[in-house]
Amino acid sequence: MERPKSLVAGNWKMNGLEASLAELDATIAGAGGASCEVAVCPPATLLTRAVARAAGSDVAIGGQDCHAATNGAHTGDLAAEMITDTGASVVIVGHSERRTDHGETDAEVRAKAEAGWRAGLTVILCIGETEAERRAGATEDVLDRQLAGSVPDGATAANLVIAYEPVWAIGTGLTPSEDDIVAAHAHIKRRLRERFADGAEGVRVLYGGSVKPGNAETILALDGVNGALVGGASLKASDFLAIVAAAP
Ligand code: PGA
Fold it and tell me: pTM, whole model, 2 decimals?
């Protein structure tokens, strides 16, 4: 099948104040006409302002998490509908930092992904093994468990993007070997095909974990890699745009 259009998504995590919108402006200006799709997921406090800046541009804006419920007594949480209400079109769910910091289970991640769909958002769902799991040779088992437990029924190329993010590669400067990335992506795609048949044909699988301008071209060209989820290097427009430019 034809290679789907790549997606390069920036995850600002808990970084970004009003002044950081200048980096977003530069990203928007530089991403015009990019050969890939581009998304930026700023902190929730900047969502409305980011959407206003990105209006009419090629850059989609997304949230970093959502609650499974539509509303209610959940202090500090955001419903997926609230993210849609800002004008954003994407939401990240199941990031390993949320799985670790907030003890999110696969079942919770699945409910969040369903909430994202309910609210009309494209869901970027993160999976990936820890260093200990990789050393134990359990990578594929972990991916299987996370895919089975956190991807809801009804996944399509339009509503779901998977981000393969080895936990040990996030923010560390370490990346898996090219062969290991290709193998993990092939495994994920095989499992999606088994479960969703043709329905999930074209679901993009992004690589995430220490993607930088210096390694982006190599990683983004690998078989089965349909883009990148970028943390640290998405905070500076010049770095992020170099990654965007490296996408096939
Ligand atoms: P990193 O983060 O690019 O800073 O390693 C990636 C991510 O957590 O999405």
Answer: 0.98
